[in-house]
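Intended use. Records like the one below are meant for learning the mapping from a protein sequence to its folded structure. Do not use them to infer anything beyond what is encoded.
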Amino acid sequence: MEHAFSHAGRAIITLSIEHTFPANGRALGLDISENPSGPETSVCGVNNVDGKVYFYNAYSGTPAGSIDLSPSNTSCFGAVFCTGGPWDEYIYTNDWGSNDLFYSSNWGTTWSNVFDPSFTSGRGMDYDGDHFWTTNGSGSIIRFYPEYSPFDTFSVPETSGQLSGLTVFPYEGDLAVAVTSYGAEGIWFYIFDGTDLEYMGFGQFPITAYNSYGLAHSNNLNGIFWSYEETPGNRQISRLSFEISQSFHQSTWGGVKSAF
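Structure written out for the chain above:
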């Protein structure tokens, strides 16, 4: 299934569903844990009702274990499994009921906490190998280092509703940032050049979802995983391939066509 959406003067972005599997009870925020030199790739989905982050085989969707959240992290949405950089092998989670980020360096055996710059407005999170990124309520995204300030806040006025999922990934020498909201019918894509965040375009989901939750990009599979409720209580995770075409930077991006 696929659907293309063209935003006037922006990129044309087409999303296609490649594979769908059921979430284990629920999957709010998503992340990817993968070996960059091999095929091992797991999708991680937060289930705050069970107090766990569940792992799924990214190829088959088969459940592949879990870790326990902090007992205090009862309103968890986002989870980040850090690879490389100053937080290598750390796990970070957020909580919409507190001002804290929870972190563990031993795969959830013990947890500590630190201030969350999004307070209770953060939902989806990701890590670019140096900075963390999080949604921030409606209309903005935060880029930050845990325990440090100041932090960067970017306005994303093209979005609508409360932002939910967020993922970042390398794109044409820069960093792509993709976000959705609970009621969104698709994904908004941005480019971050190290200083500015510029809107690229919107890709419409191939199906209609009741609620949209997490996003996570896989380098190994060249796609984005998306968690959602297709109908109330029917919670799914889909792997989306996407194609971005038509320059949104006519001076520097003309003729670019990238398939993921």
